[in-house]
Amino acid sequence: MDRKRLLILCTTTGYQTRAFIEAAENLGLAIALGTDRCHVLDDPWQDGALALRFADPEASARQIVEYANGTRIDGIVSLGDRPTSTAARVCQALKLLHHPPWAADICRDKYLSREKLRNAGLNVPTFNRFPLGSNPDEVLVSGGAEIPFPCVLKPLALSGSRGVIRANNPKEFTAAFRRIRALLRSPDVQVMREETSDFIQVESYVEGGEIAVEGLVDRGRLQTLAIFDKPDPLTGPYFEETIYVTPTRLEPRAQAAVIAALEHAVTALGLFHGPLHAELRLNAQGVWIMEMAARSIGGLCSRALRFHAFGDANLISLEELIIRLALGEPIDGVCREDEASGVMMIPIPAAGIFEQVDGVEQALGTPGVEEIRITARPQQKLVPLPEGCSYLGFIFARGTSPEIVEESLRQAHGILQFKIARALPVV
User: Fold this and answer.
1) Are 121 and 199 in contact (CB under 8 A)?
2) What is the mean pLDDT of the chain?
3) Is 144 left (phi over 0), alpha (psi -120 to 50) or beta?
4) Which residues pair with 357 in a beta bridge?
5) Could you tell me the CA-to-CA distances from 2 to 70, 77, 243, 384 in Å, in that order?
6) What is the mean pLDDT of residues 58-83?
7) What is the pLDDT of residues 240-255, one digit of tens each?
8) Longest Cα pair distance anywhere in the chain, in angstroms?
9) Which residue from 53, 55, 92 is spatially nearest to 76, judged by alpha carbons?
10) Please, which of 78, 161, 194, 208 could form a disulfide with 281 given CB 3.0 to 4.6 Å?
11) Is 154 helix (H, G, I), strand (E, B) or coil?
């Protein structure tokens, strides 16, 4: 009865839930779950989870606060983008540490977050949003100088580069606008009932290499945990991410500029306490903030990170760090392990029906490769970007340098052979 209890808010389709549950159990915590499942069914997964609607964070928060009247809650972690607004409202009501609700909401909307960052003097692309029902040919005329080519069109809230398309000329712009509109009107997006799905954002394309940063904000203070290089060029027309490798190969001066820009962005967006994941580009004009999310890295990518912390000789996971932060424990002195590490998000090469993958055992024999997780299921329909929202799986590697890790990931991926059947059209 004296155990602290952690509430985990998660979608029913996320990869991360099991890792957070295991970390919480290792810390001796009691666990409660809140998910976006059907509220009509009586505990269909037999896990006692609260049935919530993350599209309505106010109502979901009230439901959790009512639950907390009879059940102790000491900390809340939210997995992925959608639950963050609910978590922020609950924490505010229960006086638990978290990002403020308005800051969590802004980070869920690429238009609002761009406004905040631009007004704070940070480098962001020129941008504008247009109603989903707009005629793209008229948008080109009305947008005028605000739509220079090349440009990038994107939804306001979807993650993982879903729906993000580069256009180099008016013809490509019109095609991209219509393609994103079809995606946002598709049943699996409409079911989320997001107001952000009523708009398409258009931005100037920013040249330069791209990196990702994983961090924690502890009572307003940013602690950078890892800077990931993305060695594959992300130039479009789609922006499928593949390899993340850390530590970064950026020069110390460039790393310092990245951290300074992120500290400025944390203040501009009002982030206060919780995880942070950022995507940035670097060029001769400086550091450009492409995305700022009030959550941790997605998918299974966190398995590439391990840390020395709390005087423990054993390395601990990112999930444990986030849980300790949610409970208000100090996280000073945390540092990433000495070895280089990386993850490859295995891209979907073509649409179709996943049948099987060959060569996993051989690929596991690649020096430096520690694990290969195939997350696609047999007979699963595969949809590549920009419409898709998943990967075939993940490859993890460690080594003495980022270059060695990158080569290990590429070599292992080259061994894998995926069998994908052609999907028959529905008539």
Assistant:
1) no
2) 93
3) left
4) 418
5) 14, 20, 43, 48
6) 95
7) 999 999 999 999 999 9
8) 65
9) 92
10) 208
11) strand
Alpha carbons 137 and 257: distance in angstroms, whole number: 39
Residue 195 to residue 85: CA distance in whole angstroms? 14
Report the sign of the C-alpha dihedral through residues 116, 205, 395, 227, in that order: negative
Assign 325 to helix, strand or coil. Answer: helix
pLDDT digits (tens, 9 = 90+) for 262-281: 999 999 999 999 999 999 99
Q: How far is CA 141 from the centre of its chain?
A: 34
Tokens of 53: 């609607």
Cα(first)–Cα(last) distance of the chain, in Å? 58
| Closest CA relative to residue 47, chosen from 76, 70, 26, 18 | 18
* 8 A C-beta contact, residue 123 and residue 208: no
CA–CA separation, 75 vs 322, rounded Å?
10
List of residues 6+ apart from 130 with CB closer than 8 A: 139, 143, 199, 200, 201, 202
Would you tell me how many other CB atoms lie within 10 Å of the CB of residue 28? 8
Which whole number is the average pLDDT over 135-158?
A: 86
Question: CA-to-CA distance for 394 and 138, rounded, in angstroms?
Answer: 42
> Which SS3 state, helix, strand or coil, does residue 280 take?
strand
CB of 147 closer than 8 Å to CB of 202:
yes
**E strand map for 49-195:** 50-51, 75-78, 127-131, 151-155, 165-167
Neighbour count for residue 16 (Cβ, 10 Å): 23
Q: Hey, CA dihedral for 181, 276, 97, 114, is it positive or negative?
A: negative
Residue type, 77: V
One-character DSSP codes across 282-310: EETTEEEEEEEESS---TTGGGG-EEE-T
Taking residues 108-118, what's their average pLDDT? 97
Q: What is the spatial distance between Cα 137 and Cα 177, in angstroms, rounded to a whole number?
A: 10
**Distance (Å, rounded) from C-alpha 215 to C-alpha 281?**
17
**Residue 153 backbone phi and psi in degrees, to 5:** -105, 140
